[in-house]
């Protein structure tokens, strides 16, 4: 599953907002960052959750959200992005 959410801000502002939200949630340590790219794994070989994405100039792109809890995590990401970027909008979602 994948999700694209237009953030309506600069890339730096969007990146800071996502990182701050993760820190506030207590989940920042589960996410590894490489610049604006992120990856999170939980469980053996990412079997519970494996998420990968990035913050681009115009959107938050969750390229992969899989594993046993992937659907739940995707729904929570969608809710979080709606709160963080109310002026933004979903730009697409794929299975």
Summarize this entry quickly.
The chain has helices at 11-25, 70-84, and strands at residues 2-6, 31-34, 37-42, 49-55, 59-66, 89-94. With 95 residues, it is of the alpha+beta class.
Structure write-up:
- The protein has a single domain (2-94), classed as TATA-Binding Protein (2-Layer Sandwich), CATH 3.30.310.
- Helix content is 32%, strand content 38%.
- The chain has helices at 11-25, 70-84; strands spanning 2-6, 31-34, 37-42, 49-55, 59-66, 89-94.
- A hairpin with a 2-residue loop joins β2 and β3 (37-42).
- The longest helix has 15 residues, at 11-25.
Number of domains: 1
Number of helices: 2
Helix content: 25-40%
Largest sheet: 6 strands, antiparallel
The overall average pLDDT, rounded, is: 91
How do the strands line up in the largest sheet? 2-3-4-5-1-6
CATH topology: TATA-Binding Protein
Strand content: 35-45%
> Which regions have little confidence, pLDDT < 50, spanning 5+ residues?
none
- CATH architectural group: 2-Layer Sandwich
* Strand element count: 6
Looking at the structure, what is the overall shape? globular
Distance between the termini: 4 Å
Q: Helices and strands: which structural class?
A: alpha+beta
Radius of gyration computed on alpha carbons: 12 Å
CATH class: Alpha Beta
């Amino acid at each position: 599953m994948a999700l694209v959410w237009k953030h309506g801000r600069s890339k730096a502002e969007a990146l800071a907002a996502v990182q701050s939200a993760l820190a506030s949630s207590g989940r920042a340590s589960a996410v590894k960052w490489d610049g604006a790219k992120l990856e999170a794994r939980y469980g053996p070989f990412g079997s519970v959750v494996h998420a990968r994405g990035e913050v681009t100039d115009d959107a938050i792109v969750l390229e992969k959200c899989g594993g046993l809890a992937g659907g739940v995590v995707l729904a929570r990401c969608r809710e979080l992005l709606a709160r963080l970027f109310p002026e933004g909008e979903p730009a697409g979602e794929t299975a």
